[in-house]
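Notebook entry, structure prediction.
Reason for the run: the old model in the group folder had no record of what sequence produced it. Starting over properly, with the input documented here first.
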Amino acid sequence: MRIVSLVPSITASVVALGRGADVVGVSSYCPTEGLPAGVSILGGPKDVTSEQVLALKPDLILAGEAENDPSLVRELSGRRGTLIARCRGIAEAKAFVLALGQRLNRLRLAERFMGEFDRVAGLATSFHRPPRRVFYPVWKNPWIAAGPDSFCGRMLQLAGAYVIAPGEGDYPRVDLQRVLKEDPEVVLLPDEPYHFTVFDAVHFSGTRAARLGAVRTVPGQWAAWYGTMMAEGLKGLYSSIHGVPLPG
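New structure, fully documented this time:
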C-alpha cells in the first residue's frame, strides 16, 4: 500500500498503527520519525496540491477538513481511496481512528488505542476536581484562543477545564484585556500552531494563574492532535490543569 498523509496527527497515528513504512508522501509539518528515508515532503498542509498528491500514485490519501486547503479537500473527497478527517469533537475523532484502523488493516490495534482513551477519560471524569478557569491561546498578535466547541476546547473540558474564550466561533480572536479581566486560574501556552514560550507568561503576570504558578507551557499536541495519541494528551492536560497527575 502507498499512503499519502497530509495531517501531522494522522501521520503519527499511521506510524503508531504499524504502517509507517507504507507512507510515500507527507506535509512539511508532519513528523517523519518511523517513515521511510525517501518519503516525499509535499509542502505546508494548506499548500499541497492534488497534482502533487496524485503524482505519488497513492492507494490511500489521508487529509483533514480543518488542516488542509478547502479546494484540495473538495477535490480529494470524491476519490476512491481517500479518507478525510472531520474531527470537531471527541466522538468524530474516535470514529476517525477506527476508520483509519480499518483502512490500514489494523482495526484491533485502533480499538485498543481508543479503549485506552476511554479508560483515561473515565478516570478524568471520576477524579474530576472543580473545573478550573483555563485560557488556551493558539496564536498571538492577534490573540486567538481555543473556544469550548473546538476540538481543543472539548479535550480541555474533558480534562476539567472551564474554557475562557470571550468571542464567537471555535477559535475566536480575543481581546487580551477581556481575558485578563476574567482572571483565569490556569493559562496553558502551547508550542503549536504558535510557538509560545515561557517568556510569554509576562502577558498574564497579574492573573490568578500567575499567583498560583499555573501559567504553563505545554505540547500543543496534547489538546490539538486527534488520533492514537489522545489518551496521552488527555493525561497531560489533566496534570497541567490540576497540578497533579491523573490517578491510575
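Summary: The radius of gyration is 19 Å.
The old model has been moved to the deprecated folder.
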